[in-house]
Amino acid sequence: MSTLTALTLILSLLFWSCPSAMAEAVLIDSTLGVARAPTENHVWEHGDALYGLFVSTLTQEEIWYWYQLEVWKSTDGGAHWSELDVAGHKQMYILDGFVGAIKDGSVLSILYQSFSPTRLRVTSFNLTTEQWGGDSTTSGAPTPNPHGMYPSHGKLAVRSDDSIVVVYQGDSEYNYPDWGDIRERIYWIVYDPGMDSWGSATMIGQSTYDEDHVLAGMVLDQDDRLHIWLGAKPYPSIDPTSLRHLSIESDDSQNSIVLVGTVLRTGLITLEVSCGAPTYYQQNGSDTIAIPYSETVGGTDGIGIAIADASASPTWTLETIDMSHVPHNHPIVSASVFYNGQLHVFWHTGYSGNSDYKIWQSTRTGADSWSSPTMIFDPQTLGFYAADLHVGALSGGFAIVFSNGYQSPFNAYYLLFPKPWAYFGLPIAGGEAGSGIGIFV
Question: 418 preceded by cis ω (within 30°)?
Answer without folding.
Answer: yes
